Amino acid sequence: MDPFKNMQDWKKNMDHFFGENFWGEFEGILKPQIPQVNMYQGDNEVTCIFNIPGLKDSKSIDVIVDYATLEVRGIISVQNPSRQVVKEEILQGSFDRKLDLPFPVRSDKIDGTYQNGLLFITLYRLITKESNKNRVPIRIRDK
């Protein structure tokens, strides 16, 4: 007898009762997002520190900045194929983290370093001298 068969049946019944997307709302609670990240804000910069163990090649990770959003994509893999797993607590697998930044950042000045399993990304505030205000000329038409 498969002990997990009843679990699958129970999940299907819950999906039927609550709707198919019911479990998706709990995903962040049941399975934490990877990689974990800390964000620190200064006056004109923000530093994000990502926990990414085992990174050996910088080409295996993508860091994308778009105005006030930072996206980091890659794969965390710390497997030891020559040994049998006894306990596994380090979250692994492919990831795609998108973070809303506290302010718009420059796309031409970004610092990224990787050391001791941590990816440091420092972004600098976008400061524009130009105002986005535009005076709209009004034409008066005669009837």
TrEMBL record:
The name this protein goes by in its record: HSP20 family protein
Domain SHSP: 28-141
Transmembrane stretches, start-end: none
SUPFAM superfamilies found in the cross-reference section: HSP20-like chaperones
Signal peptide boundaries: none
One Pfam family it belongs to: HSP20
Homology family: Belongs to the small heat shock protein (HSP20) family.
Coiled-coil intervals, chain numbering: none
UniProt cross-references to InterPro entries, sorted A to Z: A-crystallin/Hsp20_dom, HSP20-like_chaperone
